[in-house]
């Protein structure tokens, strides 16, 4: 199901949740919202957290937020603790879509409305709100290929094997396949982290002296890749996914090798997720999934773009 920018704009407002079809009944007690993040060591998720806190404040709701630190056992335990605290709504950003299923089932059994955000989760979730990750990879790699004149060696800086990352890589490969003179010479895992991506990119550059371009699955990894490219002195172009503030600044620098990022909208995602959870709680039928648009941000677009 496709959701227009108009709907996203409505749901993104401070009281956007109230704009969905179901009327809000009088609540006997303040609403309690839980959100479990796969990590909070990332500007993308920090932005999402702040947007949730702002939205919850307009509703007079309390919020319980946890950081799984990419540990599914910790995330499961965190959710069980939230259930004990009698949360009404669980917004779940899973670190392992399959491994978190038991916690999703526990929340459902306790009558908690669960909406997955950014990455989907197995089990009885009411809905999933996430970026169009295939499109993000596709547009970033199409831009990269065109910038290279449609030819040259390209590397992919991969990440953790979760669906959003897999979809970005799939979209990238789909885009590059349309350019017969572009060759993907290697795909390596930078684990979406700056330090790891720096080391991996250094190795890629050394092993592939004719390399002309790199696609990174996220902006955190891209910043490490950019450092390696700059240190090498080579003319290697870089594209990525996220739209993080640090990446936008890097794109704007004169003669930057970082030429574009496919931007996501973390604020819109979490506000939509909250709106859908509220609508479900109040008795409305809600969509099984809500794909959120992404936008390619190049040097010109970076002048005005922000999360």
Quick tags:
six-stranded mixed sheet; alpha/beta; 11 helices; 307 residues; six-stranded parallel sheet
Can you put this structure into words, describing what you see?
The protein has helices spanning 5-12, 43-59, 72-84, 101-109, 133-147, 163-176, 194-207, 219-232, 245-252, 266-281, 299-302; strands spanning 32-37, 62-67, 89-92, 113-117, 127-131, 151-158, 181-189, 211-216, 237-242, 258-263, 289-292, 295-298. The radius of gyration is 20 Å and the shape is elongated. It is an alpha/beta fold and 307 residues long.
The end-to-end span amounts to: 24 Å
Main beta-sheet annotation: 6 strands, parallel
The counted number of beta strands is: 12
Order of helices and strands: HEHEHEHEEHEHEHEHEHEHEEH
Residue fraction in strands:
15-25%
Count of DSSP-assigned helices: 11
Q: Tell me the Rg in angstroms.
A: 20 Å
User: Which stretches of 5+ consecutive residues score pLDDT under 50?
Assistant: 1-10, 12-24
| Large-scale geometry | elongated
Mean pLDDT: 92
Level of helix content?
40-55%
Structural class: alpha/beta
Strand order of the largest sheet: 2-1-3-4-5-11
Structure summary:
The protein has 11 helices and 12 strands.
Question: What is the fold's blueprint, element by element?
Answer:
Elements: H1 5-12, E1 32-37, H2 43-59, E2 62-67, H3 72-84, E3 89-92, H4 101-109, E4 113-117, E5 127-131, H5 133-147, E6 151-158, H6 163-176, E7 181-189, H7 194-207, E8 211-216, H8 219-232, E9 237-242, H9 245-252, E10 258-263, H10 266-281, E11 289-292, E12 295-298, H11 299-302
Parallel strand pairs: 1-2, 1-3, 3-4, 4-5, 5-11, 6-7, 6-8, 8-9, 9-10
Antiparallel strand pairs: 10-12
Helix pairs in contact: 1-10, 2-10, 3-4, 5-6, 7-8
